[in-house]
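#lab-general

N.A. 3:47 PM
ok so I finally got the sequence cleaned up, no stray characters, all 240 residues accounted for. can someone with queue access submit it? mine expired

B.Y. 3:52 PM
send it over

N.A. 3:53 PM
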Amino acid sequence: MGRKWNNIKEGKAKNDAAKTRVYAKFGVEIFVAAKKGEPNPESNAALKAVLERAKTYNVPKSIIDRALEKAKGGSDETYDELRYEGFGPNGAMLIVDALTNNVNRTYSDVRTAFKKNGGNLGVNGSVAYMFDSVAVFGLEGKSEEEVLEILMEADVEVRDIVAEDEQVIVYAEPDQFHAVQQALKNAGITEFTVAELTMLPQNEVKLEGDDEVTFRKLIDALEDHDDVQQVYHNVDFGDE
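B.Y. 4:20 PM
back already:
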């Protein structure tokens, strides 16, 4: 189903500078999730999901604690959740999710990133209908059959369970995220290679030559922006 799990996480930090950006973005995301409800993951499902994802990215505990303390301290800092949809070369489509305290700045920067790298912004709904919202979990040490049995015994419905890159990947509906997570944890599985609420394209495209180079530059420009939390797209980069 959809793109391989490692393509979902292709934007993961590859060096110290990138890790710093990723950690900072998680700090904002954790703060926003904590401010929406209680700063306690046991009573705040959104926060719990963010913290689980942060764990798979090895976000330091100090970053997490600082964001939670900031939320508990009643900071009046506010962020808007934004989603941009746009196009790259030859059928490439992107969804860009952002958290910002300056909407005009972020819109201008995202639009510029598209314009300078062979793309253009679309209107709301122009791209999202070609993607599916999915909960994805990756785990090691179990077979597909074992994972299926665990979830069936817990009466948890999933979309698909597949073996990819020596791991088992579980795809489920977004509202099943916590049910899948809890069922696996009850079976003694506490470490995940991926635990995401993500957007998977219904169809993928391949780019070649200059188109691929340009598109990669667009992805990099967007992911490097401090306000951009997630970039989803429908380009298949092969075995990456």
